[in-house]
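#struct-pred

JT: dropping the chains for the assembly here, can someone run the whole complex?
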Amino acid sequence: MTTTTPLLAVHDLHVAYPGKGLRAPRTEVLHGVDLDVRPGETLGLVGESGSGKTTIGRAVLGLAPVTGGSITFDGVDITNASRRHRRELSRSMQVVFQDPYTSLNPSLLVGDTLAEPLVAHGRSAHDARAEVAGLLDRVGLPRDAARRLPREFSGGQRQRVAIARALAVRPRLIVCDEPVSALDLTTQAKVLELFLELQRDLGVAYLFVSHDLAVVRYLSHRVAVIHDGRIVETGPTRDVTEHPTDPYTQRLLLSAPVADPAAQRARRERLAAVRASSGSPSSEAAA
Amino acid sequence: MLGILPDGGRVGRGSVTVEGREVLGLPEKQRRRLRGRVVAYVPQEPMSNLDPTFTIGSQLVEPLRCVLGLSRREARARAVELLRQVEIKDPERVMGLYPHEISGGMAQRVLIAGALSCDPLLLVADEPTTALDVTVQAEVLDVLRRVQAQRGLGVLLVTHNLGVVADLCDRVAVMQDGRIVETGTTEQILTRPQHPDTRTLLAAVLDDAPARGEWTPPTVVSGAGTSTDRTEVTA
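RK: done, full complex below.
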């Protein structure tokens, strides 16, 4: 760790959702998570479905019931921030969701979608409109996009709109929840480039949540691997993805097939070896 | 191929032969005889392709009785055996479960078992692992590989994932806009692609992309954030 204070620090975070029905026990989905993101840094958060990775992002945004631990942003405790404080925080903390088809208001012109956060933060309608043009340039969309509706755009372009919306208020942290998972391979590559470019130019930090190790590896300075509500391994991307020490991380890495038949054959054999040595069941138990 | 195009879609021209026999324009009755027994299908979404109101067992037993005319007891024994072949532990118990009680990976195994139930010669698998987590995907691919080897099964695997192709396929056909642009052995296509579309596709794969280097503290942060007094210390 360097001398820079983290922008976001999560300590011993517990999140539990209420059970179904009266007096049903709560279900704890995060069991004490620690992580931090420094200014301008990307922390990749990798895990499989149900691991709690999305919940961490949601807790940071104040969208999940935190039952223990603390979340600090820029040195200020925001674990139980008031509505008003949250509103202020939205200036420095934004989000890009997975599905660009449902995260944009279908009846709002793209220009209005982008102007909304600006106006909400006190900009005049006129100034906001002027800034929208700059935002569209920034994310590589044509200027006339402002006068069109989301349905006129492809998935990749819609995700650019969502990114532009997040950028509008010049946040210092963007929580990205699987932002490229719904895109096809070539579009995904282009949107990842955009994320890198924006970070270089604007110094924004990303908490990048994904199930896809290749994507995370490409984009993140550091990686945290989450399994069953706990961080099992964390460190610089190269260390974690090339010399993983945790058995689950090893299994996760080797499970993703590579597009080279010979390399994939070797991987398959290593995976079999890891499975055998860690004694993990070859088929998962029924829920 | 299966003759189950969505309503309104129809085959304009061309020919599809199964075991040397033309199947386009075949009456529905004869076509039905092909499904399951000759050509079987594994769909993409395991959960939405199981009926939530019936147990796994009954969904496997039913077609066995209908198509193969087995007795209740024979069909049941065979269903248990099929579940064992797709590496489900404790198949007896799984027979009694409902789809919502099993995981996505297990549901996909059940569907593979179902597809295999009438001893087909050809399996058409449409993105069979796309909806699954990677560790589960690896297990399901192992199952497919093993049953294919055991039964000498032909598999037509439809996927967007080139890793899955490398893992399972002998030959590949690359499609773009409703046309096959390139075919060849997996080795050829993935290591020496010829067609520009195939190259573009492979270039977007991140497998060999270098990991991002370590973070360095920002010296100048232009325009990010509006909070005053930012204390970045250069390490």
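JT: nice. Chain B touches chain A through 63 residues (CB under 8 Å). The first helix of chain B runs from residue 28 to 34.
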